[in-house]
Amino acid sequence: MESQSPSTFRLRSFRLRGDRMTRAQAEALANHWNRYEIPLQGKIDPRDIFYSFKPKRVIFEIGSGMGEATAKIAAANPEIGYVAIEVHRPGIGALIIRAEELSIRNLRIINADILDVLNHVDDNLIDGFHIFFPDPWHKRKQNKRRLLQPPFISLLSRKLKHGGEISIATDWLPYAQEIGRNFAANPDFEGGAVRRPDRRPVTKFEGKGISKEHIVSDFHYRKR
Ligand SMILES: C[S@@+](CC[C@H](N)C(=O)[O-])C[C@H]1O[C@@H](n2cnc3c(N)ncnc32)[C@H](O)[C@@H]1O
Fold this sequence. Notes:
This protein is α/β, with parallel strands linked by helices. The protein has seven helices and seven strands, in the order H-E-H-E-H-E-H-E-H-E-H-E-H-E. S-adenosylmethionine (SAM) is lined by residues 13-14, 62-65, 69, 85-88, 91, 113-115, 132-135, 147, 203, 205.
């Protein structure tokens, strides 16, 4: 994988979990999806995807899951635009329910693989990425499916503006160590492990990890 160029490497970093959803999730998608959706057609320009306001910055969240952190962070920072990217449709339904409850208007959603999404975005345009609890792929022979490997980190760098930032959290120590090593080896970034930022809400996923006594690591990187 290391030998492949950042724009062409492929990786299946998620599990296919099916599209079974609750009635409320299905209704949320049926009623509101067109207002949140960014379709994967043509170029996606982060400066043009929020119609009702001009965001100070636009942050892409990779793997928003059930949208707990996404909705809380978007509600707390209405001047920033958030783009949630998630392959799992029931999770998107859950995020829309939360966004509607909180009357969030600074959120758009893409139902696709981040690798496809980034092919639609020109370089040097994104202000930041949130990557909270990326699938850890615990088993040794599955480690190669982890997202935060050198080619993907190079791709993130290309899409970020200068000074753009990446916030990461994981509750799997071997993955945390790999993340630290992989970013340290990339000269485009400065930063490293940080104390848990207050602005990152605890999600059910994180709660489960903590109940198993997993140690949660947070990282923050900035593109030089
Ligand atoms: C372990 S969950 C964490 C969800 C959420 N961030 C949280 O903290 O609760 C990882 C999520 O990333 C999504 N995911 C994994 N690879 C992805 C990819 N290549 N593109 C988009 N989403 C992806 C998965 O579907 C899953 O919902």
